[in-house]
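Reopening this ticket.

The earlier resolution said the output was attached, but the attachment link was broken on my side. Pasting everything inline this time so it's all in one place.
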Amino acid sequence: MNLRIESGRLSAWRQWIPRRYLIALLSFLGTTITFILRSNMSLAIVAMTSNHSSTDANGTTTCQQNFAWSSTEKGLLLGSFYYGFMATQLAGGIVAPMIGARRLLGSSVLLSAVLSLAIPMAASYGLVPVIMAQATIGLAQGVVFPAVYQLWCQWGPPLESTLLLQITYSGCHIGTFICMALSGWVADTIGWSWIFYISSGAGVLWCVVWFDVVRDNPSEDEHISAVELEYLSGAIVANAPVKVAPLA
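Inline output:
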């Protein structure tokens, strides 16, 4: 009996916030983390290639670099993300309706987080592994915007779709701001590698919540209220494009 009561309370709590707004919050956090993961190299590379001094036991001070990359090499590294990013834009639009926004967006952030976590280790093996990791992160993130559009095609009623999309896309600016504001402090305080570790950890944590909470469409969500389900189903179906029969 008590178990049923607790289960009912949990269900009521889950239904307290309309599911589409909860998904808007999670998608906002997702784009925030996505842009942190794409921007962290641009900030970390400054600390990775800057001169730093060290003093030995004899009192001799020497200047060293963690990575003595040339301007050309740094430019290639920073551009490698966008080479991959451009390659999957069209593919994302094709794949998103096939596998669903939940899996596509979640997998994109998860892969980006895992690869970003590996960058400090990859850097110890040379420039090429880091370029390959950055390019693969770009490939993964090329599907983010198609996945977001697919998500709100299923969850966004016509009168709210602009607001819901704006909430989601505001994470792009917030993520860039957070990365630029905190990366220098993190590098100076605990080391440049933690720029990647912290952003990767946030990405993995977000993926756990995302896959647990989000469903591809309202009819698959076991926690949505009957009122919201009826509203979304009616509004989205009513706004669906009319199929015109071909001319005989």
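Reporter confirms the inline version is readable. The domain at 73-236 is CATH 1.20.1250.20 (Growth Hormone; Chain: A;). DSSP finds ten helices and two strands in the chain.
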